[in-house]
Structure prediction request, 557 residues.
Amino acid sequence: MQRGLLFIALAFVLILIYQRWLEEQTPPPVTVADAPTGSVKSADIPKAPEASATPTDVPISPAPAPGASSADGSSGSAHVVVTTDLLRVEIDTAGGDLVSAKLVTYPITLDEPGVPFKVLKQEGADIFITQSGLIGHDRELPNHKTLYKADKQIYKLEPGTDRIQVPLFWESADGVKYQKIYTLYRGRYDLLIDYLVDNRSSTPWSGYLYAQFQRTEVVPDRGLFLNVAPSYLGGAIYTPQEKYEKIDFSEMIDADLNRGEISNGWIAMLQHYFVSAWFPQPPGPYQFYSSVNRHPEGPRYNIGYKTLSSTKVEAGQQGKLSTRLYVGPKEQDRLRQQEENFVLTVDYGWLTPVSAPLFWVLKQIHSIVKNWGWAIIILTLLIKLAFYPLSAASYKSMAKMKKLQPRLQTLKERYGDDKQKLQQAMMELYKKDKINPLGGCLPIVIQIPVFIALYWVLLESVELRQADWALWINDLSVKDPYFVLPILMGLSMVAQQFLNPSPLDPMQKKIMMALPIVFTVLFLYFPAGLVLYWLVNNVLSIAQQWYINRTIGVKNT
Prediction:
């Protein structure tokens, strides 16, 4: 049993080391020698303009005159600021695109409650912006380099209204007037973007819509060795044919994504706890693409979509092309409101079949107790009750093993260094007393998948971000600032060892005594909610083992 326990503990540590090694092996961003264009290659559909270097922040200035354009996408531009109850976004008139999005109700840290988390931004090393526009043949169309005109530069969702519209204007040389209209809603993180085409020219108009994200890759600081947050950061798409797929930065470097004839789906960029996604609007079909653009400070990764069927507007008529954008947290209820499969961006990894139900139960408990810390404690109790029959049988086996300790020690003294005879004698003793020496490992075998699944729940669920429990624990998703919970967890492991049979082999005994120290150090930088689960689980296990030992008549020696 002790060897099995040791093997499981070491296997768990190796899993964590392997995760860290995979992260270390991820190639850093490289400069691309030959930059592809900002869209997929197609013989009959025009390309989206090549993404230019991201402009730096500029002060708000008077809106430019209609019809003006900018060679670099920044000259003469202004930022239009729009505030709702959940979002504060900035739209650059150069391109008419979102270049900043702050989540009003999500502070960066608890120490800075007045500073909202910034999902989109165009400054610094971590650049993440949206780009969209129209493309077509034989005429100038507004794209993400076009300089729009804005009526005003500050918009605010007023009390009693459920939406706000922000129009941008541009007119081509051939007399076609365009409006790019953003619609933001109360209580929502999704935005509707409409392109209104007023064809005042003498010829029919046709065009295609494209929408993409442009982002740089920034490798997050993992801190100390096991202070890891292996959340997936990169692109993702969903199609009815292939379902959910990750398109990471290394894949974009290796080859452009070129997925055509998509009837439905979405394309996204994932961050830890947050996600931004384009949802193509009818009519389809669509083409999903990616590309990488050369830049002196490093590559710019583009991932987006474009329509494959053109929208036509006759001379003297009006037409509309639309797209929808989500910029916000991975709140699972909100994600399902967008599309049911959008919840897949909450990526629990290969243990999703275990993690997803765990989160659902945890959420139901939270809806009653209104505290995520107590919800974790109650969930731990429920898990313990669910596996009680198995764990009780295992603890009985361990209690019987402990009762056999004096006789096993006598056998060891009798056979000395003759390990083969010692093993034979021990197996005969186990057989005579009907004891399975590996039976005590079962509770730990059961706990490991649940433990790792709950780790992903605490790591990925934005609902637990900055969630308070009690006393000094004001954020269950980060480490205990005073390391009290990990130390208590280590002490609980020591207490368990006094209740369980001690290894006969001196080396195994030393290793087992070292395990509480190893796990305490390991847990120092784990989320406090996870350590809380393991601590409560240990306490319940101690109580159960103590009761069984007492029932069977085992002395704690």
About this structure: The radius of gyration is 30 Å. The first strand starts at residue 79 and ends at 83. Residues 1-10, 14-43, 51-74, 223-229 have pLDDT under 50 and may be disordered. The domain at 31-345 is CATH 2.70.98.90 (Beta-galactosidase; Chain A, domain 5).
